[in-house]
Amino acid sequence: MNLTDSNEIRALLTRHGFRFSKSLGQNFLTAAWVPERIADEAGLDGSVGALEVGPGIGCLTEQLSRRAAKVLSVELDRSLRPVLAETLTGCENVEVLFGDVLKQDLPALVRESFPGLTPVVCANLPYNVTTPVLTALIEAGCFARITVMIQREVARRICASPGTPDYGAFGLFVQYHCETELLFDVPPSCFVPQPKVTSSVIRLTRREKPPVAVSDEALLFRVIRAAFNQRRKTLGNALSAGLGELTKEQAEKVLISCGFDRKIRGEVLDLGGFAEITDEIHSLGCADL
Ligand code: SAM
C-alpha cells in the first residue's frame, strides 16, 4: 500500500471508520518525498534505535523501519490501532506503544526498547504540543539527535540568533542543550487535511557539554525567562520584576559589573552574556534566588 497516496489514505481511513482529530494535531503526510527526506536526515543505521512520536497511519514509521535497527512509535490515538496493524504488517522491527508521549518515562523506555543502540528521535510532531514534547525529549537527556517536523514559526524561534524578532527563551533553552539546524520547509499542500501553516524540519544534535559554563543552571533559565517575559522592558527592569528579591538597583549593578549598558535589553544578549549575568546574581546570594 502507498501510505502517501491521498486516495489510498482516504480509502484506508474510511474502511476503519477513522475521523481526523484537530485537537490531536492530525495532519498526515501525502507527499512521498517528505517522510523519505526526514528519515534520510535523521542519521539512521543498524546501530540506532528511533523513537517516533505520533506515527499516524505509519508513512514515516515505514521509512524509519527501513533505516534503523529498531523503531518505537508512541501514538495517543487508540483508534489508529487497527490501521497501524494493517499498514505496518511486515515491519518486524517496529513496536507501537499507545499512550501520551508526555506521560512516558522516556529514559526508562529507551533503556528497555533500545539496549545497545544509540537512541534518536525522528517524527512529524503534533503541532499543538510541539513545545512540551520537545522540552520533554531534550530534558530526557538520552537522545543523540532529534529530527522533527514542526511549524515553521517555532523552527525559526528555535534556531534564532540574538537581536532578531524570533529570538527568545525557548530557543535559548534548546540551543543550550543542542546544536540546531534548520533543514527544509514543507508546504501545507503535502498534508491531509492541509494545515494553515508552513512546516519546517529541524535537527537538534545533543551537545556533549553546554556551550557556556554557569554556576547555577536553574538560575540561568530563570534569568532568561525573566528577560523575555518582559522583552520590551530594559533587562534591569525585567530582572527585578521576574526575580523576587533582586531590586532594580541591584539588577543594574549586576549589568554594569558584567560590562553591559544599564539600559540593555535581554533580546540582544547571547548565552554567554546570560551566563555572566547569572553568575553575578548568584554571587550576590539573595535570599530567594
Ligand atoms: N507521522 C504521521 C505523518 O507524518 O503523517 C502523523 C503525524 S501527525 C502531525 C501527529 C500524530 O501525533 C497524530 O497521529 C496524533 O494522533 C499523534 N499525537 C498527538 N498527540 C500525541 C501525544 N501527546 N502523544 C503521542 N502521539 C500524539
Could you give the order of the helices and strands?
HEHEHEHEHEHEHHEEEHHHH
Side-by-side strand order of the widest sheet: 4-3-2-5-6-9-7
Q: What profile does the largest beta sheet have?
A: 7 strands, mixed
End-to-end span in angstroms?
58 Å
Can you count the helices? 12
Level of helix content?
A: 25-40%
Residue fraction in strands: 15-25%
- Described by the principal axes of the CA atoms, the overall outline is elongated
Counting copies of identical and different chains, the oligomeric state is: single chain
Number of strands: 9
Small ligands present: S-adenosylmethionine
The Cα radius of gyration reads 22 Å
Structural class, from secondary structure content? alpha/beta
Low-confidence stretches: none
Question: What would the average pLDDT be, to the nearest integer?
Answer: 96
Question: Would you summarize the structure shown here?
Answer:
This protein is an alpha/beta fold and 289 residues long. The protein has helices at 6-15, 33-41, 59-67, 81-87, 106-113, 130-140, 152-158, 169-177, 217-229, 235-242, 248-257, 271-284, and strands spanning 28-29, 48-53, 70-75, 94-98, 118-124, 145-151, 178-186, 191-192, 199-206.
Which helices and strands appear, and what pairs or packs with what?
Blueprint: H1 6-15, E1 28-29, H2 33-41, E2 48-53, H3 59-67, E3 70-75, H4 81-87, E4 94-98, H5 106-113, E5 118-124, H6 130-140, E6 145-151, H7 152-158, H8 169-177, E7 178-186, E8 191-192, E9 199-206, H9 217-229, H10 235-242, H11 248-257, H12 271-284
Parallel strand pairs: 2-3, 2-5, 3-4, 5-6
Antiparallel strand pairs: 1-8, 6-9, 7-9
